[in-house]
Structures are given as structure tokens and as C-alpha cells.
Amino acid sequence: MGEIRLAGRMDEFTSFIVMDVLERAQALERQGHDVVHLEVGEPDFDPPPPVVEAMRKAVCEGKTHYTHSLGIWPLREAIAARYKVRYGVEVSPERVCVTTGTSAAFLMIFGALLETGDAVAMSDPGYPCYPNFVRYVGGRPKPLPIAEADGFQLVPERLEREDLAGVTMFVVSSPANPTGTITGRATYEWIHERGFRLISDEIYHELVYTGQKEFSGLAVSDDVIVVDGFSKRWAMTGCRLGWMVVPQDMVRAVNRLSQNLYISPPTPSQWGGMAALESGAGHVECMRREYAARNRLLVDGLRRLGFSVSFRPQGAFYVFADVSRFCDDSFRFCMEMLHEAHVAATPGVDFGRNCTSRYVRFAYTAGQERIEAGLGRIERWLAGRG
Question: What is the pTM of this model?
Fold first, then answer.
């Protein structure tokens, strides 16, 4: 058959470096080493017990067949009701599209709205899968540099100076990966008022540690597309269940894409999602309090060791720490730390090109004892590096 010839789109399709780090860490573990995992943004908690029971019951009752491609109606109604209760926003269940994780949501949004060559603006550093989603459907990522001095967020003053030729939409994640930043409402309004399509990634909502009240992008405009899901706040990553709220005239397009690409979201997971919305609030609050304690422990510990963390992350479960005091190559720093100290973290270069070689993302998705163990290992390792 000869050598396989890959499609040209793969030339700029980057690896997800955090997964490369995880796989190297797992190889070390197979060799008998104990690794402290501070790399993967996956909750270490189990889903709320009502979620587990609902999924078990769904399987036992034979609820394992295809559903409507946009999700079961009771779940769409429950998600719509959530926006009224939590954000004071009226949303029709017709506009709620349940998806096979938020990755599927983004692929369908970009597939439905982007023409070849359209540019999508996003922060740099930012979530590394966004650019690849855009490239996959023929669009162009437009990374916009964000500064630590601005709290790692897009701000209107800097946006005014950007060349946005060819940009048709923005993606804003708040709280953000990898920085834990909450973006101010003024940024959402600036984007909307200038006629750009705005996608608001709200997957880390409720995991906020500052006491400030969150707002949904839908509070800015009914035209904003919101992406959210069950993975983070309800610890349901493997259930692959997300949703998006889209304008009414986009629903049928998403319906057609979902029918062809996914058929329907996982059925038992959808019943688990119902239970999460109905009975999972207490579980989320327990997790949030634990994450807040880990946030304090990790930030204080990294600062004590000489890492520069200029502001405490406001949400999500990440610390984006400046390691330039120790190394100007975050990838090399992380690989050495993994193999020599057996602590896994994600190099900043996974999240863009804007000064990211200076930063490392630490995820506080491990318990406090493991974080303390990791900090101790890093301290000894740094002392040994001279």
C-alpha cells in the first residue's frame, strides 16, 4: 500500500501536550515510580452519588438506546430552567442542544458557522484545543496576546489596538484555562457591540473562589452562544456530556450535524445529567470548598519556592506560574521535573506562543496531601539543580 499520506490539515494540528505529559508519567508509573499528578485538568472526585445511581438505573431499565440528537427533552428543559434560576435569563428548551462533551459542541459550532479562511479570535495563552477545532473545519485561529499585568484576560483597551481583519467570532473562556482568570463583562459587551459572534465557554462556572457573582454570556445578548457541560463541576469527565445554547435559527443546523456526526449524546449519561441538575448542588459546593483550600495551598507553596504567581487564580483549578527564575524553556523544565522529581505539570507552551515558554500550569486536581508531597519534591529538586 505504501506510506500513508496525511491530509494537509494535519500539518498545523498540534498535539495536546498535557496528554503527552500524562502518558510519560504513566510510563514512569509502570516502571514502579510514584508520580504526583498536577498536570491534567480532571477532577479527582467521583460524580455525586445521585448521578451514579441515575446512570445505573438507566442501564438497568434499558435506557441505552439512541435519543433525540439534541438530547432528551426533560434534560433540555432542566438546563433551560437553570439559566432562569442562576442567571435570571430566559432560555427556551428548544435552543438547548445536549452534546457529546463540550468538544463536540465546539466542533459543531465551528462547522456550522465558519467559512474557509474565517478567523476566530481567542486569548493567547488559552485552551489549546480551540485552535485545532478551528483548523479542522478550515478556519484560521487568531491568537490575541493577553498580559499578566491585565490579569491574563482580554480587555477592551488592548482589543482596540488589535488587527481584527477577517475575524468573524471570538471565543472567551471564563473562568479560564490555564490561568483561572474571570473575564469582566465589559469585554463581552465590547465584542458584542462590534458585531462579532461571541462564544462563551462557561465550563468552569461555579468553581469560583472570590465570592463574586458569575454572569452568563446570555445576559449580555440572546445572540451569544454558550457552551457548558457536566465534566468539571459535577466530575463527570468520562460521561462525555455537554450542552450549548444557540440562537433559534441555528438549532436545525446543529441538529443535522449531531445526527450525522454523533447520532445522539450518551443515553445513560443524560439521565445522570438530570440527577446532577436536580440533586448535585451540595456535592459541587463541597468540591468548590476543597478546591479553594487547594488553591491557597498550592499558590502559597509555589511562591515560597520562588515561583512567580502575581495573582491568585479566581476560578477553575489551575495556577499559571512563571518559572523564568529557574528556566527559560517551560517544556524542558516540566520534562526534567517529571523525570527527576516525579511531579507532572503542563508546560506553558501547550497554551500558545505569547511568552508561554516562561510559564508552567499546575492543576490542583489532586488532594492536599499529594499537593504537599509534590511541593516537597519540587523543593528538593530545585535545591539539587544548583
Answer: 0.95
